[in-house]
Design brief:
Blueprint: H1 26-46, H2 55-58, H3 66-74, H4 78-88, H5 92-98, H6 110-113, H7 121-135, E1 150-154, H8 158-169, E2 173-177, H9 186-189, H10 198-210, E3 214-216, H11 227-233, E4 236-239, E5 245-246, E6 259-261, H12 262-273, H13 279-282, E7 292-296, H14 300-312, E8 316-321, H15 332-340, E9 344-347, E10 349-355, E11 362-373, E12 379-383, E13 389-392, E14 395-398, E15 402-403, H16 407-410, E16 438-440, H17 443-446, H18 451-478
Parallel strand pairs: 1-2, 1-4, 2-3, 4-16, 6-14, 7-8, 7-14, 8-9
Antiparallel strand pairs: 5-15, 10-11, 11-12, 11-13
Helix pairs in contact: 1-3, 1-7, 3-4, 3-7, 4-7, 5-7, 8-18, 12-14, 14-15
The structure holds flavin-adenine dinucleotide (FAD) and iron/sulfur cluster.
Residues 60, 62, 64, 66, 89, 95-96, 99, 101, 104-105, 121-122, 125, 452 line the site of iron/sulfur cluster.
Length: 479
């Protein structure tokens, strides 16, 4: 499609609240909201200048054809917009909700860079696909023919599910193994529901299941079934297990009650939103209600913890980070959201230990300053002597990032090559490991990363598997 200047502009007169006012019927609110969302999407899409040098597209890991679907949305051709959008992205409505767009597509929008505010690409992507689901344009998975090859996928996160989708649409027999009781990986149990509603994920899981993907849930590979057995059962295997070993902090008092890991805290909250029985939440151990909360860390997981704590009714929420605002790894947009919700950021601080006997009562905080750049080019935090103080806390949440588990040892597979960081070694394009017929994608290869990268990897690995199956089928036919 040629990139031409946009002619159609829609003006939004009213500002629509996100939540339904108590005196408005849900049905009426939904109707008004839909009208508002339609106008807003068209207005935003119309702002795209069709610049011809779509940096947004090149900075999207999936190289989504953003200018084209914005143009179609501006023209009201939503079904076509959806077709273009879903051609490169398995889960556009999920990426539209949770990609850190300020670091990807939107951060590179030329309108943003000329100081006029980015086109809200993520919101339009979400809107297009939500509409497609409502209108029944999302096609069920219905392969034209069944194929005999089978693939075992270990891990039902976005990497594994994106591969399952591509493979199953080509008629491959797909079984997904996951140790959790629900599919979705961090989409269900890591990322909070206020960023990604759980029914948006389960709708995709249902689509895969209805399309013939078999899910073996509550199945921990390495315990309930061996990796070798999975290799035996399938023609190819995809490792998409993510990274789950939480980085930890020591120091005096580190074993006190009330010092918890971010993943446990967020999982409990997410499980509760599904209506599960969560004793650790009900006992208050993993619930911030009525408590002074201190979160340690400056990444996106820390932002999810502080924002979850405010929603649970914490009396105060503070976030300690050892560098300053400009040098934190988390999305600036998330920091702004958290600040607007009442979270206090205490920059240039690091924990030295904890106060309290059995239960934690505070964090011993050391003040830091930024020194010379380290090997990575980032300014290294340095301790300021004699400036320690105690930050009161009833619950301390450690959100310091994640590392890979030791898969070769856990699975008794020394042949599975890993890097010195413990991530699985795989070709960056085909995602093949050194083991025959074994591929790997997502966080277990990249280290803690993003959903959109896991989707890209999963799609690429599936394509590489299909190529290998086709090559094998052709050579067998030629014999
Ligand atoms: C709190 C939090 C918030 C985040 N927020 C965002 C965000 O807003 N935007 C964004 O883009 N990214 C975000 N991320 C990162 C993103 O979630 C990950 O990059 C992405 O989920 C990686 O996908 P994956 O498929 O590689 O792994 P995962 O999503 O981690 O899925 C791996 C799956 O493998 C299963 N598994 C592991 N080991 C085994 C085993 N031995 N046997 C069977 N099953 C196993 C796990 O149970 C899990 O279901 C966030 C991460 C966290 C922790
Ligand atoms: S997938 Fe993510 S980076 Fe790509 S266009 Fe959508 S929101 Fe932007």
């Amino acid at each position: 499609m040629a990139h031409q200047p946009m002619l159609k502009f829609v003006k939004i007169e009213k500002d629509m609240p996100e939540k339904r006012p108590p005196d408005l019927r849900k049905q009426d609110f939904d109707e008004i909201y839909r009208e508002y969302a339609t106008e807003k999407a068209a207005e935003q899409a119309s702002r795209c200048s069709q610049c011809g040098v779509p940096y947004c597209q090149s900075h999207c890991p999936l190289h989504n054809n953003i200018p084209d679907w914005l143009k179609l949305t501006a023209e009201g051709r939503l079904q076509e917009a959806y077709e273009v959008s879903q051609a490169t992205n398995t889960f556009p409505e999920i990426c539209g909700r949770i990609c850190p767009q300020d670091r990807l597509c939107e951060g590179n929008c030329v309108i943003e860079q000329s100081g006029h505010g980015t086109v809200t690409i993520g919101s339009v992507e979400k809107y297009i696909t939500d509409t497609a689901w409502e209108q029944g344009w999302v096609k069920p998975i219905s392969p034209a023919q069944e194929r005999p090859e089978s693939v075992g996928i270990i891990g039902a996160g976005p990497g594994g599910l994106a591969a399952a989708d591509v493979l199953r649409r080509q008629g491959i027999q797909v079984t997904v193994y996951d140790r959790y009781d629900r599919a979705g990986g961090l989409l269900v149990y890591g990322i909070p529901g206020f960023k990604l509603e759980k029914d948006v994920v389960t709708r995709r899981n249902d689509q895969l299941e209805q399309g013939g993907v078999t899910f073996e849930l509550n199945c921990d590979v390495g315990t309930d079934i061996s990796f070798a057995k999975i290799r035996e059962k399938h023609d190819a295997v995809l490792i998409a297990t993510g990274v789950y070993k939480s980085r930890d902090l020591g120091g005096p008092g580190a074993g006190a009650n009330g010092i918890v890991r971010a993943i446990d805290y967020l999982t409990a909250s997410n499980r509760k939103s599904f209506g599960d029985d969560v004793p650790e939440f009900d006992s208050g151990e993993l619930n911030a209600e009525g408590k002074r909360v201190v979160v340690i860390g400056g990444g996106d997981t820390a932002m999810d913890c502080v924002r979850t704590a405010t929603r649970q009714g914490a009396t105060s929420v503070k976030c300690l980070y050892r560098r300053d605002r400009a040098n934190m790894p988390g999305s600036q947009r998330e920091v702004q959201n958290a600040e607007e919700e009442g979270v206090e950021f205490v920059w240039l601080t690091a924990p030295k230990g904890y106060t309290g006997d059995t239960d934690v009562s505070g964090v011993m905080v050391q003040k830091m300053r930024l020194g010379a750049p380290d090997a990575t080019g980032r300014q290294a935090p340095e301790l300021i002597e004699g400036a320690d103080y105690v930050e009161d806390a009833d619950i301390v949440i450690k959100a310091l990032g994640f590392e890979p588990e030791d898969l070769p040892t856990l699975w008794g597979e020394p042949e599975l090559e890993v890097t010195r960081w413990g991530t699985v070694k795989a070709d960056f394009r085909t995602h093949k490991t050194a083991m025959d017929g074994v591929y790997a994608v997502g966080d277990i290869v990249r280290g803690a990363s993003l959903v959109v990268w896991a989707i890209r990897d999963g799609r690429e690995a599936a394509e590489a598997m299909l190529e290998a199956f086709n090559a094998k089928a052709t050579s067998v036919a030629a014999e």
